[in-house]
Amino acid sequence: MTLPTEPDATLSRKAALAKARQSRRPSRLGRPAGAAGEPDYPMEPDAGFPTLLRQTWQQALAAPDLATAVDTLLTLAGHVPADIQLRALPVEDETALKVLVGRSWRNDGRSPDRADGAATAFLGEIGLDRSGRLVVRVPSKPPLSGAADLVDGVLRVPWTAGDLADYQVELALAADRLQESVADCRQWLLNVGADGRRTLLRDLTEAAIRTAPFVLYAGERQYTNFRDRNTLSGKTLRPGHPDCVLSTLGSVPLELWSDGDVLLVVCLTLLVRSAGYARIEEANGTQLTPDHVALLLERTRAAYNAASGALPPVPAAAGHTVAALDELAGALAVRRRELMGSVQLYREIYGPLMHKIERVAGPVKDDAARLEAALCARLRERLPVTGADLAELTARLTASPGWLAEPHGGFGTGLESLVYETVRAATAVFDADFAMSRGMRSLPALIEALRAEAYATIAGWEIPHFFCCVVPSQDSRRLFGGSAARLADTSWAISSRMQYNSWHFLVGNLPKIPEIAARDHFVPPVIPDIAYYSDQHHNGHVAARVRFTVRSPQPVRVLGRTFNGFMDLRLLRCEGLPFDEQDLLAAHRVSAFVAQATSLAATLVAGGARIEVTSFDSAWHRDRIAG
Fold this sequence. Notes:
Elements: H1 13-20, H2 49-61, H3 66-74, H4 82-86, H5 91-101, E1 122-128, E2 134-137, H6 144-147, E3 155-159, H7 161-209, E4 215-218, E5 221-224, H8 245-249, H9 259-275, H10 290-306, H11 322-339, E6 345-350, E7 355-360, H12 366-382, H13 390-399, H14 414-429, E8 434-440, H15 443-451, H16 455-459, E9 466-472, H17 484-506, H18 514-518, E10 529-532, H19 539-544, E11 548-558, E12 561-573, H20 581-606, H21 618-626
Parallel strand pairs: 6-10
Antiparallel strand pairs: 1-2, 1-3, 4-5, 6-7, 8-9, 8-12, 10-11, 11-12
Helix pairs in contact: 2-3, 5-7, 7-9, 9-11, 10-11, 12-14, 12-20, 13-20, 14-20, 17-21
């Protein structure tokens, strides 16, 4: 299993290489790859986020008053919570919105007392930049047209003399508060010492590399590991690159660090200490200040305490100093580990800003139970399993798993049949346009490598060593012009991307030998999520119209080792209503069923069975969808 093609033991190396040079798109199978003169399905150049920004700006222009226009810009026309964008503003813009329209994330907004007909003392501006942030021209700033990358023009905003006086007072208070925070952060870093600061920078560099895209702000400065705007190590910048802020600070005296760099290092450290690298994404799109971190941690504390039952509540931070927030972050990390086995954590994802919010799920209600019952009824018809719910089906499967290694339902193994029938049932029961589940093609190869501790070999495996079974709904062809071929191509594109995710997560579970550390990978996910409007930034998501999703990653046990994120179940809707918490809870139980089947299959393989997943390649998706 070393060639970059779907495994086929019957092919010679020469034939396998020839196959690898062929297109894997279902509608082009057998043709040379890269031979098309132009894309089969071209997208508009501004598809996705640019279109949303343009529509948002047009809606703001049509608003009847300034407050409505500002709300439209803050929510990107109803696609994200206003709270995220309010926390994205530098102190001058934040203060201006408080004075002009009474909007503030601090809950100290006011109703502006603006006299009708009062003379204009200053003509300001409000715009929308191409990152999605609302931007404000205040008296100390030049016109936005020369200072910001605007979506279009600006809204002219008259300021009265009273507005200017109020702004001056509020800005002085806010600036003093920020400077006190920066001074506290500098002192904390000074107390850490030079060696301690270098350790922090190494840890945060690793966090930036192993974390999904994020965009953060300190004043006007942007810090991101995302695409060509990179200022931190990630997909574009290697560790040690001179453009990476964290890499350059290691040899620079603390006194020469900018205020933004100080806030970056301290705030990211607090976030990571509270829940690991993934917590960074919960600050996505916002300002990095101790006050903002304090708000995030306090919301988390309230949620954890509400779910803690008999456990003593986590006390509130004594203040917004770094020391107080560091103590709270540590306590939240401990409580989070205590809760993981008793409550269901998940994240909401707001695609336009890539912002995530951790939630504590409530109890399973009738809606989730109804979904589970309907899915179990379908599985009982198609698989040799019995039981009223997934717990009973899992118990019966665990008691008699042998059929997973035998042919079933037209598949070479029962495991493949179980994956397909579960995904197929999920598509119908959850009213999804697509459902999918991913995993590894050769459990025997994985077990052999683990027994030999050949971790470098595993790190060298390529994307085709993994699979993803994608099943569209019966009427999803409508989304792609009624074309079965295009639907098959889209399904295979989704499958290929999900194979990449398996490749990307697997080695994150292995010992950090040099080959693992050097290989691109993310920290494997451990909690599910619901995403809204994901058809914005990722080109594949835009092309496949991935708007609303549920993702439920699950661990799989192989030779006594837990592989987090080894598989998942994903549900996708291209239009209509988003999924909700009950959908997620039911889907998470479904993915746990598939994960248990995979763990059982691994145990069978460890005992001598041969379970190879040969289905779910491009030809399979063509035959099932367009055939």
